[in-house]
Amino acid sequence: MTLTVGFDLDMTLIDSRPGIRACYLALSERTGTYIDADLAVTRLGPPLVEELVNWFPEERIAEMADLYREMYPTIAIAATPAMDGAREAIEAVRAAGGRTMVVTAKYEPNAKLHLAHLGIEPDVVVGDLWAEQKAQALRAYGAGVYVGDHVGDVRGARTAQALSVAVATGPCPADDLRAAGADVVLDDLSAFPDWFDGYRSAAAARA
Predict the structure, then answer these.
(1) Residue 12 CB: number of other CB atoms within 10 A?
(2) CA 203 to chain centre
(3) Does residue 204 carry a pLDDT above 90?
(4) What is the enclosing helix (H) or strand (E) of 99?
(5) CA 114 to mean position of chain CA atoms
(6) What's the average model confidence in pLDDT over 180-193?
(7) Residues with Cβ < 8 Å from 87, sequence gap 6 or more?
(8) Are the C-beta atoms of residues 185 and 177 closer than 8 Å to each other?
(9) How many CB atoms lie within 10 A of CB 57?
(10) Which of 58, 50, 9 is nearest to 167 (CA)?
(11) In the predicted model, what is the mean pLDDT of the chain?
């Protein structure tokens, strides 16, 4: 059976803070509404609408989400680098004959633009799923491992009965990730290939 490993996107595979910050500033300028972009990028992970409710009245949220997503490709994609170890983590799974997938709360077309721009090529990309909802995609593709940076990612992995591997590169400290139930906590994705080798060796020994 092919091992499928899922990854979150923002602050797991990509450092989306510069691009998202620029997009919030542009949205603020265009709408005349104050947005503290520096604060917003300290709490990445949940869906866009959960941030927009802090700055816009409820009746404007859907409109502002559409506008943000429309502006995003020209503002945020080029400004967003890969996280340390991101490409190597994907390649480690591929080299072992595994399948990779990205499951993210980000709007799926924009998630695909980020990955294409950075030359990161997972086998599957599923967007618009957050926290426990991520289990839908993880189960559908039989993911045995899910890697993310947020306690919501841990909840998604556990709901899918996948091994939860957390990286302390996002808004959630390592202790919070462990408290949420992460099975493994790494400093960043640079540590993933060695961990993955050990995980596969242990699995083979049990087989």
Answers:
(1) 28
(2) 26
(3) no
(4) strand 99-103
(5) 11
(6) 98
(7) 118, 119, 120
(8) yes
(9) 9
(10) 9
(11) 97
